[in-house]
Every structure is written in structure tokens, then in C-alpha cells.
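Cross-posting from the chemistry board since nobody answered there.

I work mostly on the small-molecule side, so proteins are not my area. We synthesized magnesium ion and want a rough idea of how it might sit in this target. Sequence and SMILES are below. Is it possible to get a predicted 3D structure of the two together?
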Amino acid sequence: MRLAVVPGDGIGPEVVNEALKVLSEVAPQIEPTQYDLGAARWHSTGELLPESVLTELREHDAILLGAVGDPSVPSGILERGLLLRLRFELDHHVNLRPARLYPGVRGPLSAQPEVDLVVVREGTEGPYAGTGGLLRKDTPQEIATEVSVNTAFGVERVVRDAFARASNRPRRHLTLVHKTNVLTHAGSLWSRVVEEVSLEHPEVAVDYQHVDSTTIHLVTDPSRYDVIVTDNLFGDILTDLAAAVTGGIGLAASGNLDVSRANPSMFEPVHGSAPDIAGKGIADPTAAVLSVALLLDHLGEPELARRVEAAVAFDLATRDHQNPGGTSAVGDRLAALVSSAAGTRTSA
Ligand SMILES: NC(=O)c1ccc[n+]([C@@H]2O[C@H](COP(=O)([O-])OP(=O)(O)OC[C@H]3O[C@@H](n4cnc5c(N)ncnc54)[C@H](O)[C@@H]3O)[C@@H](O)[C@H]2O)c1
Ligand SMILES: CC(C)[C@H](C(=O)O)[C@@H](O)C(=O)O
Ligand SMILES: [Mg+2]
């Protein structure tokens, strides 16, 4: 199996390094090839994602990405020109973002609720589509539009994926999150599609919640959620919040999936390049390591994925959360755990 690795910017290379340590222990048959895309390449060559590199990436079974974004590059250049371009070109329509409160992790809430939810975020449309622009730029009459594009095709495929996931989880519960009271055009389409697909899944209990009130309930009662399906922007915001509630952004993994498997899917931590801590060796690599677990699941290696998760669970249950050790110390512990009996035992 061939894995393309895009470490990217800031803490991206730091956490990817640790994720690869774990991967090489658990799945030495996977061959990683590194691609130097990101701020440094843009500064030296002006390139973001050359066609030749995109063609090579397509030939891999999966992609592992660290993070992109750098204060030396104008905001949006790397995010749109590299990260979103990858997600769009490779048709990553399902952005899968689980959030689980692991035993031993103290979330910021006074109670320790049971949280085990997954956000199925639409990945190629919505306000991210890039439709819109600036009219009468640099005049007092300037107008900026950012059109949210929602196609029946795009909404249906992500809603179907969310129902299938809900159907395979113990609680079989799906919440559509939107803002149907204001975004009535897109809201109508999303609601109708959910209603139609729900007829094929009588086993899944469905409800609806406005996105603003979801931010309340994610904090006050996160246990109520099982699968959340939502649009690209709402999903972006809700998954940072869900990460915070379950112990921090350093633990939150994601998979950008082309469910049709026509293109390689891409796995990455939910967090960004964290310029505030880059180079200090203190970024938590756990999110990147858990992204490797999602990757292994996707590549049809669920037992290996469970070993990685079990190692993380063991580490989170036993680590000194005040002083967890630096990036490479955490990576070393996790790499040792995946190959040891301790890692395997916790999965039982
Ligand atoms: N997928 C991606 O590549 C991605 C995701 C989000 C943001 N970004 C980009 O990253 C840059 C910084 O964005 P931001 O500051 O809004 O978000 P961020 O996720 O990089 O950082 C937010 C906060 O979380 C902390 N943090 C992030 N990852 C951590 C980790 N592994 N361990 C410990 N702490 C961690 C940071 O120090 C910071 O205080 C921007 O250029 C943004 O566009 C990229
Ligand atoms: C950097 C940005 C394009 C990206 C997004 O908005 O999807 C990030 O915030 C994320 O959550 O992966
Ligand atoms: Mg985000």
C-alpha cells in the first residue's frame, strides 16, 4: 500500500513525524512518500499544488496530511490553493470527524459526560465552494459575496453516508444541524433530503437542531449526540467545539473521504499549523495518530486501527495530563504501546 505524506506547515511536520513512527510499528508494509507542499515551497517556487504532484498523489492509496497555513503567507492562499484544492480535486465529499471523551481525559466541563459522537461534515460544497467575489473593490460601495452552493447530488451523498454510519452505531441516532429558519433555500434542500433518505432507514431515529443551539447543547449536554450531519462551514465550527469539549484540539482526528474510492482519501488532524507553538516540540501528536487509525480503517485494516486507538486510550488513561511530555515523547510512548501487549490488552 502506498501512502502519500504531506507534512505541510508549522506543527504539521512535527505531528506527522510521530504519526509515521506509530504507523511504521503497526503497519510496516505501508510505504510513505513525502511531498513538500506548503509555505516553504510557495515562497521558493510560487507553487501550491502543481498538476504533476496532484497526478502522483492520485496514484496513492491514501494521503496523510499534517496542517497548512503560515503567518508569512497571506491568509487563504495555502488554505484554498492547497488544502481545499486537494479536498475538492479528490472529491472528499465526506469529512468525517469523530469526537470522543476518552477515560482519563478531563474535558473543560465540570461534569464528565459520556461523549462519543461523529460529525459527518459535507466536504466539497457550501460556503467553501468559492462562488462569489468582490464588486466595486476598494470603493465605499464594495460588496463581498460568498455563495453557499448546495447541490441535491452533494447533499444526498453525504446524508446517505451519515445514515449508513448511524445505522451501524449502537444508538442509531442522527441529527441534522443547519439553520433552516434563516438559510431557507439550502435548509429546505437539506431537510427534504434527510426526510427522503430517512424512509430507507426506519431503524435510525432522526432529529433536527439549529446550529446556534447546537453550540449550546454541545457544551451543556454533548452526550445527546450520536451522528451529526451538517454542511461544510457549520461542520468546521462544530468540530473545533466538539474537540474542545472532549479534551482539546490536540486529540481530534479527521478523514476526508471519497466514499466512491475513485480517489485517495486524506487523513489529517482537525487542528491547524498552530504557529503559536510551532518549533517548540510541545504539540500533541495524538490527533495525527488517531487520524492514522481512521486511515487504517479506511484501508481495510480495522484490527490495526483498533490497536492504534487502544494505544491512545491507554496513554490518555495513564499520562500525566499536567505534564504529558513533548511531541516526540508522546509519539515514542504511542509507538511503543502499539507494538506491546499493553496496547493490545486495552482494546479487549
Ligand atoms: N487542516 C488544516 O491544515 C488547518 C486546520 C485549521 C487551521 N489551519 C490553518 O492553521 C493556521 C493556524 O490556525 P488557528 O490558530 O486558527 O488554528 P490551530 O488549530 O492551528 O490552533 C488553534 C489553537 O490550538 C492549539 N493547537 C493546535 N493544534 C495543537 C496540538 N496538536 N497540540 C496542542 N495545541 C494545539 C494552537 O496552539 C492554538 O492555540 C491558519 O493558517 C489556519 O488557516 C489549517
Ligand atoms: C484551513 C481550513 C481550510 C480548514 C477548513 O475550514 O476546513 C480547517 O479549518 C479544518 O477544519 O480542516
Ligand atoms: Mg477547522
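Reply from a structural biologist on the board:
Welcome over. Reading the output above for you: The two ends are 27 Å apart (CA to CA). Residues 79, 83-84, 236, 270, 272 surround 3-isopropylmalic acid (ligand 2) (CB under 6 Å). Happy to explain the C-alpha cell format if needed.
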